[in-house]
Amino acid sequence: MQAWRVHRNGEPSEVMELEETDRPTPGDGQVLIEVRAANINFPDALLCRGQYQVRPPLPFTPGVEICGETEGGRRVLATPALPQGGFAQYVVADRATLLPAPDALDDAEAAALHIGYQTGWFGLHRRAHLQSGETLLVHAAAGGVGSAAVQLGKAAGAAVIGVVGGPEKAAIARELGCDLVIDRWSEDIVAAVKEYTGGRGADVVYDPVGGDAYAKSVKCIAFEGRVVVVGFASGTVPTPGLNHALVKNYSIAGLHWGLYNTKDPAAVRACHDELTELAAQGVIKPLISERVPMAEAARAVQRVADGTSTGRIVVLPSGGPR
Q1: pLDDT category of residue 5 using cuts at 50, 70 and 90
Q2: 3-class secondary-structure state, position 316
Q3: By CB neighbour count within 10 A (0-12 exposed, 13-18 middle, 19+ buried), where does 162 fall?
Q4: E strands, 103-239, where?
Q5: Residue 121 and residue 80: Cα distance in Å, rounded?
Q6: Which phi and psi angles does 4 have, rounded to 5°?
Q7: Alpha carbon 7 to chain centroid distance?
Q8: SS3 helix, strand, coil % of the chain, rounded to 5?
Q9: pTM for this predicted structure
Q10: Shortest CA distance to 141 belongs to which of 119, 174, 111?
């Protein structure tokens, strides 16, 4: 079979190589899955660079989430077992972690549902306890993680402010349903949030960016507001001033969604059931900006790494539209 492999750490476009390799062999409790679509996540770029919290042995295949078909014909969502990730024609995954792919979504959309939307749901509901009528501020609102949070925030009845970089991404954020879109390239985030909220500020901040995004967020956070720290796509890990959190009376909540798979797997399945229902109702739908063939995967991962992509880019190992 074909699979993208990384033999040394570096930029995805430089270190990912398309190779012929053997199909993986399922171990105890595992199942072989034919990959129908593999979603690209920012952690795939970090894996290539050797900067992710998990460092699989070299060589490895990146790709942390897929939609595929089991030998029994089941259409499923899976997180492949590294070092044999999803940018391949076949993967193995733990049988106990497989989730049914929603009928309302095609393969590419389904492949992009799991990690981003689970992260958004747990961040907004389990960590921030977002309420209907509150104001939610989402950074990188036109990206894969941010667009999921925008849709979930609207589904929860919140007013959603989306922060983006550039007019193209601003247009996408408006199409997603943001009540206010702020272009950080040309607008003052803090002033715009305060004006929109009548000086109150945002009740919940969803931050997958870190760096300057975090610094601006705590300057426009509401009384008893909650900042959900999801990731550091900017490359800069902020150093929160706890005296500032005390004086302004807001909370900082970290979110490592992967821990729920081991600490509370029942909650992950319950969340998937809710996401499946929301997809069936048409309330959420992953924003797929590109569906690329297998041969273009490395360049696509590089675009995600560089922050130039919008929504989700999905790799189709079979090459056909799905």
Answers
A1: very high
A2: strand
A3: buried
A4: 135-139, 159-164, 180-183, 202-207, 221-229
A5: 22
A6: -85, 130
A7: 25
A8: 35, 25, 40
A9: 0.94
A10: 174
